[in-house]
Amino acid sequence: MNRDLLFKQIQEKSSYLCVGLDTDPERIPRHLLREKDPVFAFNKQIIDSTEQYAVAYKPNIAFYEALGPAGWESLQKTVEYIPDHLFTIADAKRGDIGNTSRLYAKAFFETMPFDSITVAPYMGKDSVTPFLGFENKWVILLGHTSNPGSMDFQTLQVNNQYLYEEVIRKSSEWAGPDQLMYVVGATRADKIKKIRELVPEYFFLVPGVGAQGGDLEAVSRLGFNDHCGLLVNSSRSIIYASSEKDFAAKAGNAARALQEDMSDFLNQFL
Amino acid sequence: MNRDLLFKQIQEKSSYLCVGLDTDPERIPRHLLREKDPVFAFNKQIIDSTEQYAVAYKPNIAFYEALGPAGWESLQKTVEYIPDHLFTIADAKRGDIGNTSRLYAKAFFETMPFDSITVAPYMGKDSVTPFLGFENKWVILLGHTSNPGSMDFQTLQVNNQYLYEEVIRKSSEWAGPDQLMYVVGATRADKIKKIRELVPEYFFLVPGVGAQGGDLEAVSRLGFNDHCGLLVNSSRSIIYASSEKDFAAKAGNAARALQEDMSDFLNQFL
User: Fold this and answer.
1) List of residues 6+ apart from A172 with CB closer than 8 A
2) What is the mean pLDDT of residues B164-190?
3) CB contact (8 A) between residue B123 and residue A65
4) Do A128 and B142 touch (CB under 8 A)?
């Protein structure tokens, strides 16, 4: 998917919501365990009930990998089920030397039809560029994450700035805003303004609204650019809104509530 | 596996060789493609012909992941086939927020019986510690890698040292040398001495001998500690020593040649 199509979706739905598919067999409603593939059965109903409010879906790859080969089957079915006009993110945080990154790219962009993958920056340019050789496929590079450990290395001072600012500045020379986005944690809304000034054109994937805390209003006000420029993720507060048979309807309600807030913020700030 | 057992292996075999299983269906001998699981058939013969010269095996997870669910089946069979007294490394370079890292740990330490996993440090302590809660299982954290991109961020100056030195110094507070190792690239043998001074007790996993260049003699002389402290990996120069029916025998020869050098260096420098 290209940037114009993504922005068109955002405008049509008045939403920049990404639904995180952190699907855990131990947390899905019990009645689904009778299904042949409970993880896919859960995801399918979540997608059906939320897709009118969302522009993106983000399976968290660890949840599928932990289940062995069956988990990869569930993941493949899930990404193939998501309608083409929705943006798909493999939240995999991969990154390795060139010939290895190429194979990760193949796994997520060819073996599976994801639009994008999250990538860790520590190994530098040649670990990232192999993901950039696919038309209309995206890298979402870790900029500043939202977890406590983000203060261990990302906020070290290098050249009179934070390391994460140097990571964002340097990597923005490797690809433009049609191929590259950044993960920017919402628990640091104050920092989003500065990162937006550093890379005005790029999309940010913002985790951390919902279960991880974070302030949607501040993130939106400080993070928007003229293409919206934000995808805000919510996982557990949507997909586990209920653990009963009404889980899909409740997930839809939770997604709609976020979408309504987003619609307000788009009207106010964009 | 614990550190004493690993060192005992090293002494008994006079070897600190790790064989990298970067198994690519397009590079394995053609006759194996008639097998039901060509990747596993290849790995099995490579393991049989090299295990007397090696102390560790390191499947590069990207190669399996690129093949979809079938690749995970091959990986699972491979790690289960490797004899228990050999150290197994999932070269996966994972790392995510706490609850997600826990699932990656489950994938590699429970669903599959790996002894260790490579982990990327960018997300900090809570992305690493979930891998440390398993008895006799190890984290191998990226310190200084051997690829060109290792100069993009790892060698930035922070607090009057390189970023990778700060990563190693700080992370060594999270776990001792019985649970934590570091990836230290062999193309920078001059730097190994300094890293060895920083963390005298820890094992280093050294990629980059063979196809990536690197000087085994210098790495050994500068990197040994009193438990050897090195695992030196070679992938392509062993497993692709021949593309004919003699591939396993040729792989054994290539592994033996490296082991003989290692035996000399253990006698000279340890």
Assistant:
1) A180, A198, A199, A202
2) 93
3) no
4) no
Name the residue with higher pLDDT: B211 or A21.
A21
C-alpha gyration radius of chain B: 18
| Torsion angle in degrees (nearest 10) through CA of A245, A249, A252, A258 | -90
A246 half-sphere exposure, CB direction, 13 A CA radius? 5
Find residues 190-219 of chain B whose CB sits inside 8 Å of chain A: none
pLDDT in tens, B96-136: 999 999 999 999 999 999 999 999 999 999 999 999 989 99
Q: Is B25 on the interface with A (CB under 8 A)?
A: no
Chain A residues with CB-CB distance to B107 below 8 A: 62, 65-66, 68
- Closest-CA distance of chain A to residue B269, Å: 31
Q: What percent of chain B has pLDDT over 70?
A: 97
* Cβ partners under 8 Å of residue A219, min gap 6: A186, A189, A192, A206, A209, A230, A232
Written as one string, the DSSP assignment of A145-186 is -SSGGGGTSTTSEETTEEHHHHHHHHHTTTS-TTTEEEEE-G
Residue B143 CB-density burial (10 A; 0-12 exposed, 13-18 middle, 19+ buried)? buried
Per the structure block, which two tokens stand in for B5?
Answer: 């057992």
Are B36 and B49 in contact by the 8 Å Cβ rule? The answer is: no
**Chain B positions in Cβ-Cβ contact with residue A155 (cut-off 8 Å):** none
As a whole number of angstroms, the distance between CA A186 and CA B97 comes to: 14
Amino acid identity of residue B171, one-letter, is S
For each of the domains in chain A, give its residue range(s) and CATH number, in order of start. Answer: 3-269 (3.20.20.70)
- The tokens for B88 are 């197994």
What is this model's ipTM? 0.96
Query: In terms of DSSP H, where are the helices of chain B?
Result: 3-13, 38-50, 61-65, 69-81, 98-106, 125-128, 163-171, 189-198, 216-223, 236-239, 247-269
- Residues from chain B contacting residue A149 (CB–CB below 8 Å): 123-128
> Which of chain A's residues have a Cβ under 8 Å away from the Cβ of B65?
103-104, 107
- Report strand pairing: B203-206 vs B230-234: parallel
Distances in whole angstroms, Cα of residue A190 to Cα of each of A154, A183, A196, A210, B185: 16, 15, 11, 18, 37
Residue A116, φ and ψ in degrees, nearest 5? -155, 165
Q: Of chain A residues 130-159, which have a CB less than 8 A from chain B?
A: 142, 145-154, 156-159
CB A20 within 8 A of CB A43: no
Counting beta carbons within 10 angstroms of the beta carbon of residue A40, is it exposed (0 to 12), middle (13 to 18) or buried (19 or more)?
buried
- The answer to whether the CB atoms of B62 and A159 lie below 8 A apart is no
Position B214 scores a pLDDT of 60
Question: Which of 67-106 (B) contact A at CB < 8 A?
Answer: 67-70, 72-73, 76, 91, 93-98, 100-101, 103-104, 106
Write down the pLDDT at residue B213: 55
> Would you name the residues of A annotated as active-site residues?
93
